[in-house]
Amino acid sequence: MTDASRASDVRRFLGLLYEPGDVFEVRAPKCRERPGSSYTSTASGYFTFDALDQAAAAIAELDEAGLAPASTSRSTRCGRT
C-alpha cells in the first residue's frame, strides 16, 4: 500500500469518526525517535476536523515507518494544529 492510499484510507476513517467543530488527539506510544534507536517516546498531536488531511498524513507516516515524523519539530509531532 502506498503512502497516498494509506493516508486516503485513514482520512476516510477519520471522516466517519469526527464532524465539523470536533478537536481530537492522535497519540502513538512507544514511538522510536530514529531508526535503530532504543529510546522511545509518545508522539502526539491535536487536530481539528478541518485538519483531517494533516492528521491522516501524520498517522500514515507513523504507521509506515514506526518512527516519529521528522518533518516537524519535536514540539509539534504529528502536525499539531
List keywords for this structure.
single chain; 81 residues; alpha+beta; 2 strands; flat; disordered C terminus
Description:
With 81 residues, the chain is an alpha+beta fold. It has one domain. The chain contains 2 helices and 2 strands, in the order αββα. The protein has helices spanning 3-17, 52-65; strands at 23-32, 40-48. The protein has a two-stranded antiparallel sheet with strand order 1-2. β1 (23-32) and β2 form a beta hairpin. α1 crosses α2. The chain is flat and about 40 Å long. It starts with a helix and ends in a 16-residue tail after the last helix.
Determine the structural class based on helices, strands and strand pairing.
alpha+beta
Q: Radius of gyration in whole Å, from Cα?
A: 12 Å
Distance between the termini: 27 Å
The fraction of residues in strands falls at: 15-25%
**What is the domain total for the residues?**
1
Tally of separate helices: 2
Q: Shape, please?
A: flat
Order of helices and strands: HEEH
Q: Main sheet, how many strands, which sense, barrel?
A: 2 strands, antiparallel
Task: Tell me roughly what share of residues is in helical segments.
Answer: 25-40%
Low-confidence stretches: 71-81
Give, in spatial order, the strands making up the sheet with the most strands: 1-2
Number of strands: 2
Average predicted local confidence, pLDDT: 78
